Amino acid sequence: MIIIVALIFILRAMTRMDNTATAEKPKDNAPYPVATDREISSRVLLGSEGRVVIEHGGQRYLLRQTHAGKLI
Question: InterPro entries from the xrefs (predicted)?
Answer without folding.
Answer: Hemin_uptake_protein_HemP
